[in-house]
Amino acid sequence: MWIYQCTINGKVWSRSTGQTDRKRAEREVPRLRKLAQLLREQPNASLKLSKAIVNEVARIESDVSIGQAQRVSYALRNFLRFAGDIPLERITPEMIERFQRKRLREVARATVDKDIGYLLRMLRMHGFNLSKPSPKRGKFTEQRAFTADEIDRFFKVCPDRLKALYALMLATGARLAELAPLSRSGHVALLKSEVDLTARRVTIRSAKNRSGMQGKLRVLPLPEELAPLLERQITRADGPHVFGPLPNSHRDFDHILMRASIRKIDELGLKLTAHSFRHSYATLMAEATGHNPFVLKEILGHKRLSTTERYCHLTAPSLPFSFKEITPLGRERGVGKGCRILEIESETAT
Question: What CATH number did the domain enclosing 101 receive?
Answer without folding.
Answer: 1.10.150
